[in-house]
Design goal:
TIM Barrel, six-stranded parallel sheet, four-stranded mixed sheet, 8 helices, 31% helix, globular, binds zinc ion
């Protein structure tokens, strides 16, 4: 499952196609990506879990909202997802912080889970080293976070090179100056850090050995943009657009659309959400996965890890 398929025929990358729009006399760009899908022959579903771990949750939680219960619930939820994956034959991607793979006590540690996930055919990806707000890091801090998390997660997974993907915490940065996108919260003006904008993050992630990165791309004008933007190559790395958070009706509708158009759908969630009401609740997750399996069994959909899904967009590795 983790080995590179030799039968997949490389497809040309769907390059972003920019169309200018006039707003109050200004010509603004909006990102419209041709969505032919990853594999022109088959629709693809990739489920990406933002497995924050205890460290990630602490970093992402306002102190006055802190509760310890979700820290342990998340570990339980990942175990449930692993079991559901085995029951349904569904591989998924779990992006977690490197700190969870360090020599730390429970509930911060997740070594065993990460090893078991990888052994079961799931993909382990990086969610940075300690769930930092990447735009605020210096270039050196960013590089260390990306490299360190990759190394230590691969050690926990038990395979060098197993960690190929990066899921930036908080979906930051969102500013992409090259494409005319500026968002508050990114430190895109001063002082300049490598992750102040997406352009710099792509270069640094590629340099750290990552092959794909999930991005939340929010053009200034979202009307008319494709909800199923296809992955594309930029800055030496494959960009996987984030399509949908949660597993409710919207995700099911996008799944139908992906099947109809033979496109790739990237659905994301938080494992701790399995125990909360809402679109990440366990019932919604299982409902979407079972529907995806029905489509898979009809030959209309493949369900795979993100790395496998974007293989057609990656440059071929030279033989070792
Ligand atoms: Zn996170």
């Amino acid at each position: 499952m983790r080995s590179r398929s030799t039968s997949a025929s490389p497809a040309p990358c769907a390059a972003p196609n920019w169309t200018g729009r006039s707003v109050w006399g200004w010509q603004l760009p909006s990102l419209v990506v041709a969505s032919t899908g990853v594999d022109p022959q088959q629709a693809t579903l990739a489920v990406v879990w933002d497995f924050d771990s205890a460290q990630g949750q602490v970093a992402a939680t306002f102190p006055y909202h802190f509760r310890s219960l979700p820290l342990r619930q998340e570990l339980e939820a990942v175990a449930i997802l692993k079991d559901e994956g085995a029951r349904l034959g569904v591989p998924m991607t779990f992006a977690t912080v490197g700190f969870a793979a360090e020599d730390v006590p429970e509930p911060f540690a997740a070594h065993g889970l990460l090893h078991d996930l990888h052994a079961a055919g799931h993909e382990v990806a990086s969610h940075s080293w300690r769930h930092e707000w990447l735009p605020h890091l210096t270039t050196q801090q960013l590089r260390r976070s990306l490299v360190r998390s990759k190394v230590v997660l691969e050690h926990a997974a038990g395979e060098v090179g197993a960690v190929r993907g990066l899921v930036p915490p908080f979906n930051r940065p969102m500013s992409w100056l090259r494409h005319g996108i500026i968002r508050p919260g990114d430190r895109w003006a001063f002082p300049p850090g490598a992750a102040a904008t997406i352009d710099g993050l792509l270069r640094t992630a590629s340099g750290a050995g990552y092959e794909w990165i999930r991005l939340s791309i929010r053009p200034l004008i979202s009307r008319g943009t494709d909800p199923l933007r296809a992955p594309f190559r930029e800055g030496g790395i494959t960009v996987v657009p984030h399509h949908c958070s949660g597993f409710d009706k919207r995700a099911l509708a996008l799944l139908d659309q992906a099947v109809e158009r033979k496109a790739m759908l990237c659905v994301t969630g938080h494992p701790a959400g399995l125990f909360r009401p809402g679109n990440e609740h366990q019932d919604a997750v299982v409902g979407l996965l079972e529907q995806a399996c029905r489509l898979r069994d009809q030959g209309k959909l493949r369900i795979t890890t993100t790395a496998e899904a974007v293989l057609p967009h990656l440059p071929e590795r030279s033989p070792a």
